Write the structure tokens for this entry.
Amino acid sequence: MNTTTTKLRENNNLFHPVLYKNAFSREECAAIIKLPGIYLPVPFYSSQEIKDSHSEVTKPELKVFSKCKTIYPSPNPPNISLYKKINAIGHDANRKFFKFILSNIQETRINELEENEYIDWHVDTGSGEASTRKITVLVFLSEPSEYEGGIVRFMPGIPSIEQEQGSAVVFASYHLHKVEPVTKGRRLTMPSFIHGDSFI
């Protein structure tokens, strides 16, 4: 019997968000904010757990947060260049840090939070199509002077991210995070998801 063990390649970057400052110009952010789209409620997997009635296993509770207004912009022209840019940012971060096997961006949205609105603890992965989300690219569209609060928090113990207009933060879609309540003004962001074969 061969007792020799092979040293597996480790990756200590899996829970470290990557910040791209000035990824989008002020003009690009203004144009994105004006994009037409369809408002739909967004389901999130909350950190609150419920017990499966058929077992002792607890599962994350699926909630739909009405506290977030969401637009889904079309991936068709003239938005193709936008999708390409987001995809390039996500793949660059993945190549340098996460090293997942990825395909391409599958979806993007524009989230709008106003005073007293928030997004609770959740992950961006889930079941079905959401199970293939691997990388989240979050672009800050609003000027910091336009709102107060609305800070993105990551777990476990990751420092908060600078939310400058046009900056993008890239993180693994399974990373638990939330957006604190907006206390003044209106906060706009653009989260996008790059997919790949489901984690196995």
Summary: The first strand starts at residue 18 and ends at 20. The chain has two helices and 14 strands. The radius of gyration is 18 Å. The chain has a mean pLDDT of 84.
